[in-house]
Amino acid sequence: MCLQKSGTITGRRKMNSDGLSSLCMRFGVIISLLILMTANPLSSQNNIHIESISIDEQNEVRIKYFKEGDYTIERFDVVYYETIDPIDPNPETISIIEFSPDEATFPNPAAEAKVLHLRLVAFDTDDNAIIGRELHSTIFLEDNAEQVAEGCDIGVRLNWMNYAIYPFPQLNFPKPLPFHTVQVLIFDIDDEGLSDPEIIATFDQSLWDSQEIISFDRPPGTYAFQIRSVGENDLSATSNIIMVNIDEFIIPESVEITKVDVIDNQFIRVHVLADDFGFGEFEYRLYRSDDPGNEFQEITAQLHDSEHFYFDDEDVPGLDDNMWYYYVMVDMVECPGEYALESETISSLFLTAEPDAGFDPVNDNELMVDLSWQHDPAWDIYSVYRRLHNEEDFQPVVTGISGNTYTDMVNVELLTGTIAYLAKGQKDDLGVHSNYVFIDLEVPQVELSGPNAFRPASDLASNRTFAPEFNIPVIEYTMEVYDRNGLRVFRSDPADPFPSWDGLLPDGSPAPDGAYLYYVTYTPGVPNMEPGQLRGVVYLVR
Asked: What are the distances in angstroms from CA 263 to CA 93, 249, 259, 421, 422?
């Protein structure tokens, strides 16, 4: 049964169960092959164990070992696996003739490999093989370490592959045994090379890969780092060595807000300019007011470490319900020495639009819209953009004006639905966006007007017939008239665009006194208005 670990102890990444199972199966196949290929001819009391594995600055692998049993070692073979494959494990053997009583050193056979999988084989004076009963995996410290900053504290982010031992049981798959502690070592570098290492951080050991940020409070310069795994009975493994350059932490002398955009009436986007934005976080405090002459209230404060970011409608309650004036203040997070930096304030560009209150969509040819925005000295010129109901994007209405007001004239033939406006301020290549302003244009309600009675015998010619009147221009209409029993008494000639009823029945006889219901189907003379139908009651008087 292969051990599956649900998560790392302190590492910030973990291998999923499928990856772990696959790796365990691969090791299991390798171990099974080794057991079938090699048999220890000596007593089971004779054994050899790896005590530690390290890789030095010359990229040499050093193995310390201890032995069980009474025999003399003549030479070593180190079996290693540069790649692990369950079908072709591709083991290679390095023979070591010269060795010290307690360690063996050899060049790294796979300098580019992330992990070496090693097994030690010793030969006595009779050339009998004493095969180590564990497969060891080296640690690998990846060469992508980088300097980072958390607040105003400098750190170094390290990534490494962890150490594991695989005992060789006879009847089942190997079980990985992680070491219990990880140590981070640092070396000073001078003309003579590397100094003695110093432990600067210690973590609980996780099984596979790990990532940690190590705080760093040393002077700027180049340092060497190494990882060491430590286990029971002084067992250990040490990784390769990597070099990391640490730059000086520079505190900006100035920081400013360059613009505050209102995006789609749903987001506040803030842009920041600092003389050095390499490290550190800033605290941004967002204020707003319903009138620039009133007091501004702080509504949110957040930490950010980038040049631009968003406040959304969760950060800013009511953002999509009301239009506000906004501005932002920024403080740099306190650093050693109680250092803080505060920017100037800058307001968002707030646009208002007032349509002509006396606009008559029936009789007027153009809609007049008065636009205005608060003026900010940060911007030299302004532009106004408009989007009509049938357009996907905003189109420029006027560009390059220096004031803060503009009157837009919209052709009545384009009017229907909603008009949206947007203003932009500009200075050099930098621009700021205002909020959107929407104007809903109501389609006129068509109504019938005129007399509701007529008398065929009237002395006035205009009262002798009945014709409907509309509150909008119409191009043509048709009309039908019905008596109180639902019988149709009149239908207009389709060739007559503006028919009237003279009070006669279809056979030419006079219709009796009374109320009659009429229906008219009209074609409006207002652009973009659909044809419609209305009905009414008219009284015939004899």
From this structure: 65, 34, 12, 13, 10
Section 184-208 average pLDDT: 86
Q: How far apart are CA 360 and CA 281, in angstroms?
A: 56
Whether the CB-CB separation of 499 and 492 falls below 8 Å is answered with yes
Task: Take residue 328 and report the two structure tokens written for it.
Answer: 């932002």
Q: What is the pLDDT of residues 429-484, one digit of tens each?
A: 788 999 999 988 766 788 888 789 999 999 898 899 999 999 888 899 999 999 99
In whole angstroms, give the CA distance from residue 455 to residue 460.
Answer: 9
Mean pLDDT value of segment 61-78 = 88
Spell out the alpha helix ranges (H) of 355-429: none
Which two structure tokens, joined as six digits, stand for 429? 């290549």
Domains and CATH numbers, the chain: 17-140 (2.60.40.10), 145-162+178-246 (2.60.40.10), 255-332 (2.60.40), 351-441 (2.60.40.10), 448-540 (2.60.40)
Question: pLDDT tens digits, residue range 134-189?
Answer: 888 788 888 888 887 665 677 898 988 877 777 765 434 445 555 788 899 999 99
DSSP symbols for 204-258: EPPSSEEEEEEE--SPSEEEEEEEEEE-GGG-EEE---EEEEEPPP---S-EEEE
Top-confidence range, 32-46, 245-259, 275-289, 471-485: 471-485
CA angle 434/435/437 to nearest 5° reads 120
d(CA 440, CA 64): 83
Here the contacts of 454-457 (C-beta below 8 Å, separation 24 or greater) are 454/503, 454/538, 454/539, 454/540, 454/541, 455/540, 455/541, 455/542, 456/502, 456/503, 456/510, 456/540, 456/542, 457/542
Task: Please tell me what DSSP assigns to residue 143.
Answer: S
Structure tokens at 14: 């973990």
User: How many Cα atoms occupy the beta-carbon half-sphere of 338 within 13 Å?
Assistant: 0
| Centroid of chain to Cα 13 | 20
Global pTM exceeds 0.90: no
Return the H-helix or E-strand segment holding 36.
helix 17-37
- Give the amino acid at 314: E
Name the strands in the sheet holding 405-411, side by side, starting at the edge strand that comes first in the sequence. 351-355, 366-373, 405-411
Query: What radius of gyration do the chain's Cα atoms show?
Result: 44
The Cα–Cα gap between 467 and 474 comes to 13
Q: How far apart are CA 323 and CA 59, in angstroms?
A: 65
